[in-house]
Amino acid sequence: MTAATASQTIGPYWHLLEDKSWANLTRFGAEGERIALIGTITDGDGLPVGDACVELWQPSPAASPTWDGFGRAATDVGGNYCFVTLKPGPVGGAPGANTPQAPHVALTLFARGLLIHLQTRAYFDGDPLNESDPLLASLDPPRRATLVARPVGEQNGIPTWRMDIRLQGVDETVFLEI
Amino acid sequence: MTDMPDLPFRPFSPGSQPALDNPQYGSTAKRHPNHALVRLPMGQTVTEMSAPRFSPTRYPAVVDMTHGKNALGERIIVQGRVLDEEGRPQPGVMIEVWQANAAGRYDHARDQHDAPLDPNFHGTGLVFTDADGRYSFTTIKPGAYPWRNHHNAWRPNHIHYSLFGAGFAQRMITQMYFPGDPLLALDPIFQCTPDEATRNRLIAAFDLDVTQPEWALGYTFDFVLRGRGQTPFEENHP
Fold first, then answer.
1. CA neighbor of B92 nearest in space, from B39, B52, B121
2. From CA B120, how far away is CA B1, in angstroms rounded?
3. Active site residues of B
């Protein structure tokens, strides 16, 4: 058996790859409940992380010719990211498990200074399934709160949710070992 | 052997991946979490075990990063395979590629290194693995460049890669280096992988069989993505 290739940092020049249209997961014409997911990424000094690559992956809704469930956004100089996507529904749990997972999206962070990516999730405040979600239920309330996006009104007519991400320090976001 | 999509991906082999906190790489200081990573109490789920699938019709391949233009530098061909930890070929993997030009300058607004840009070289490519897990592309050998991590710090020649496998738990971003580079011993980013054998697999092999006469030098570089299965690495669980 050969161990997986070692991760290396994405570095500060990954924007050569960037296609800004990827931040809109509905760009191929997917229909459903459109939402915006926005947030600010800050470091251990509270300073914005202005060179991050944020990837959003959601297995719900299921893939279709107009929807692959994946997006990528760069943070701006203020550390802000913004996706337009479809509100996910609940999905199954681990194989063989009966407890469904509350609606969520996976967020993956790459940046200069991250030798391997950080992985987290955004859940949606007020969803009744959050109470029984296996991951959320396993966390104490202050830590759990870092994984829950809050509604912040509308942006360009689209219901908008905010999920700030703190890499280090007070209110540090829960990051996952996958 | 058939694929087993319902099985979770194995944990990383200890020492095969860098720590998030690395005192030799200054940018990690304020960007690494202080809390331990949280394991999913229910194990991996569809969110981790499945992944977006990218169609070459929607994401067109770019296998010649010089686009047939006279990019300055040493023309090279890089080829290899994407395998899992059991050595099984991984078809349909999308690989994004980006790099500096031959002078060690990225075509990027934030790169202010005093080295020339090359109007014939932007530095991006996109390839998909075939049914045997193989990929190949043509580019120029990137130059070394200074960075400000410490006094007189220089990055070794390297090419950046981003890979999308069949499960998002396999998502990988890495860098490929070149054999014989004296900067490797001095580079905190290359040196960050604790396990020596895994670290040295980040160095491509010069390959005369890939080299094309009167055209380009050839290098071979294989990627290994996490495999599925419950079996831990026995040597790490005495």
1. B52
2. 45
3. 106, 145, 155, 158, 160
- Identify the CATH assignment for A11-166 out of 2.60.40.10, 2.60.130.10, 3.10.20.90, 3.30.450.30: 2.60.130.10
Kindly provide the ipTM of the predicted complex, given to two decimals: 0.97
Output the pTM of the full model: 0.96
pLDDT > 90: what percent of chain A?
A: 96
B107 touches chain A (CB under 8 A): yes
**Given A14, A45, A134, which is nearest B42 (Cβ)?**
A134
Q: Does B124 touch chain A (CB under 8 A)?
A: yes
The superfamily CATH assigns to domain B49-224 is Aromatic compound dioxygenase (2.60.130.10)
Q: In B86-122, which positions are buried (b, 16+ CB within 10 angstroms) versus exposed (e)?
A: eeeebebbbbbbbbbbbbbbbbbeebeeebeebeebb
Is the per-residue pLDDT at B2 higher than 60? no
In percent, the amount of chain B with pLDDT more than 70 equals 94
Kindly tell me if the per-residue pLDDT of B233 is higher than 50.
no
Query: Where are the extended beta strands (E) located within chain A?
Result: 34-42, 53-57, 70-74, 80-86, 104-110, 118-124, 148-155, 158-162, 165-166, 176-177
Give pLDDT, residue A146. 98
From residue A143, alpha-carbon distances to A92, B31, B36 in Å are 23, 18, 12
